[in-house]
Write a structure and sequence with these properties.
With 228 residues, the protein is α+β, with helices and mostly antiparallel strands. The protein contains nine helices and eleven strands. It folds into two domains: 143 residues, Jelly Rolls (Sandwich); 74 residues, Orthogonal Bundle (Arc Repressor Mutant, subunit A), CATH 1.10.10. 43% of the residues lie in helices and 24% in strands. The chain has a four-stranded antiparallel beta sheet with strand order 1-8-3-6. Helix 4 crosses helix 5, helix 6 packs across helix 8 and helix 6 crosses helix 9. 29% of the residues are buried. The mean pLDDT is 91.
Length: 228
């Protein structure tokens, strides 16, 4: 494993408080895989055999229905752990996972992760914190879907990417617009209309390049808050 990967794992929110010997035991049978963009890591309904950790790249969690409709539930990037509930509960995956750019993924055997949770209180506590953080992200999504219009959801997402206290920002969408539309609960056509609606709030877009020229107005339009 590369030195930068070991540093990433040592600073990971789930693994950082583990004693070195426990972290080594946990990772002893882990697999590191290079995955080109568009690779399906696992499918909805399959047994949870591994805990997944993104070493490099970006992964989308995708939910599907019997009618083959799909929605993107969330994106994960460098250092993120995902699908922990299925691993802990020994239940099937509720979603599929697909890389949206070339990625390197670490697969930690589920049984070994559960064994370490039983033996290491630090890992159990860290896992609880991570699960609580993901729960808050899910609640934020539910609130956005129920309380905000499509333009407001898009504007809030753009503001979350801007990471600035200033009045202006230039950002790049981390995913293609089609994937973003599904993440925000829209069709591509609705996403285009939402971008048009946000022009009056200072949003200019060209492909994946976005300019926010009036952040205070955009924040007011979206009723945006910084709660995380």
């Amino acid at each position: 494993m590369k030195d930068q990967d070991l540093q990433l794992l040592a600073g990971n929110s789930v693994l950082e408080h583990l004693p070195d010997n426990a972290r080594q035991y946990l990772l002893k049978e882990a697999l590191e895989l290079d995955m080109p963009s568009g690779t399906t890591l696992f499918r909805q309904g399959e047994d949870a055999r591994f805990l997944h950790l993104v070493l490099e790249g970006r992964v989308a969690l995708v939910g599907s229905s019997d009618s083959k409709d799909e929605t993107v539930v969330e994106f994960f990037h460098d250092g993120d752990v995902f699908i922990m509930p299925a691993v802990i509960l020994e239940l099937p995956y509720l979603m599929s996972a697909r890389t949206v750019e070339d990625s390197r993924i670490l697969l930690i055997p589920a049984a070994r992760f559960r064994e370490c949770m039983e033996q290491e209180p630090a890992l159990s506590l860290a896992a609880s914190h991570e699960l609580a953080r993901h729960w808050r992200l899910l609640i934020r999504q539910v609130k956005d879907l129920k309380l905000r219009s499509a333009p407001q959801r898009l504007g809030s997402y753009l503001l979350s990417l801007s990471d600035t206290d200033g009045d202006r920002a230039e950002i790049e969408l981390p995913e293609q617009r089609g994937m973003l539309a599904r993440r925000l609960g829209m069709t591509p056509e609705n996403l285009s209309r939402a971008f048009s609606r946000l022009q009056s709030s200072g949003v200019k877009s060209r492909g994946r390049q976005i300019e926010l020229s009036d952040i205070p107005t955009l924040r007011k339009f979206c009723a945006y808050d910084d709660l995380t």
